[in-house]
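Q:
Just now I want nothing more than another pair of eyes on a protein record. Here is the record:
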Amino acid sequence: MKRTLCISALCLSCLVAPVAAEQADNNGKGLMERGAELFWEGLRQEMSPALDDLQEFAENFASEVGPSMRDFLARMGPALAEIAAEVEDWSRYELPEILPNGDIIIRRKPDPAPDDPQENPAPEGNAIDL
């Protein structure tokens, strides 16, 4: 009995030692946590040039287009607000169409036809059509 207990303890210590050493090397972080950190760090390094370009574009856009956009909104804002107040449901209109002469047409979608009661007669009696 003592012999079996000693052999079991020895085998257990052999299995636990590498796991404890691995955890000590990784500051107590698990394999999944280390993998996630490496993934995000790699993604951050890969995306860094694109994010820098995007920031530069946003700064240039704000300095070049910002004043003209403010002017446009100051002039057209009240007119757009009136149109928005009159239109109840934007989904009832087609996409805008620009004609060759420059005119812009926004057509209203055709109203759905009501169901004709003659086409679908009600079932007779208590029958339910499944």
Remarks:
- Residues 23-105 form one domain.
- The mean pLDDT is 77.
